[in-house]
Specification:
Blueprint: E1 7-9, H1 14-23, E2 31-33, H2 50-65, E3 68-78, E4 84-85, H3 99-109, E5 119-129, E6 135-146, E7 162-164, E8 169-170, H4 176-182, H5 184-199
Parallel strand pairs: 1-2, 1-3
Antiparallel strand pairs: 3-4, 3-5, 5-6, 6-7, 7-8
């Protein structure tokens, strides 16, 4: 399959686009956001899994743009809270609620829960739809635990409360290059890079 001129990533989240561009650096195709591609749509993510939601978004954008489209759906699963907030991570407590409030609520719900039972993971499913309409979905996971307060300025979302045991720091305390190496999104994007490399001629 011939190399496309660009990859459209189905997100409007500027922080996420920056992180994706850092991880995909060195890839021989520019990665642009939906907005940069002139696509302004609201997609209802009504799937039951991260994988289903990633594909729903990718298909909606591919229907408009064609070419090579990537989309991700990611979230936080906390074992002591029955894997909440899960696929509702972005919508937890409502779209307009700040992550500071979301994080505070989760910490409050875990009040009294000891370290060994505060296990959690970030999950990221990345879907690719190729120019011929074929699809591929991969999943990356980062295991950790939930802290007792927000720490760090480098991340976004739930990063300030998610502790990576390897470093005993939250993902918001880690430098970008370390976080990208360890993160669920970094793992999933590297997997999808491999898949793209099997299909696209460079």
């Amino acid at each position: 399959m011939n190399k496309p001129e660009r990859i459209v990533f189905a997100t409007g989240n500027k922080d996420k686009v920056r992180e994706i561009q850092e991880i995909m650096e060195g890839f021989d195709i520019p990665v642009i956001s939906m907005k940069e591609a002139g696509i302004d749509i609201d997609v209802e993510e009504n799937g039951k899994t991260f994988e289903e939601n990633a594909l729903i978004k990718a298909k909606a954008v591919w229907d408009i743009s064609g070419g090579l489209v990537l989309s991700d759906d990611s979230g936080l699963e906390i074992d002591a809270l029955n894997k909440e907030p899960g696929i509702l991570s972005a919508r937890y407590l409502g779209h307009d609620t700040s992550y500071h409030e979301k994080n505070a609520n989760l910490i409050e719900r875990l009040n009294g829960v000891p370290d060994e039972k505060r296990t959690a993971r970030f999950v990221c499913a990345v879907a690719a739809i190729f120019p011929d309409g074929s699809e591929k979905v991969v999943r990356g996971v980062m295991e950790g635990r939930i802290g007792y307060e927000e720490k760090g300025e480098n991340g976004f979302g739930y990063d300030p409360i998610f502790i990576l045991p390897k470093y005993e720091k939250t993902t918001a305390e880690l430098p970008a290059e370390v976080k990208n190496e360890e993160s669920h999104r970094g793992k999933a994007l590297r997997m999808i890079r491999e898949e793209i490399g099997k299909v696209i001629e460079f």
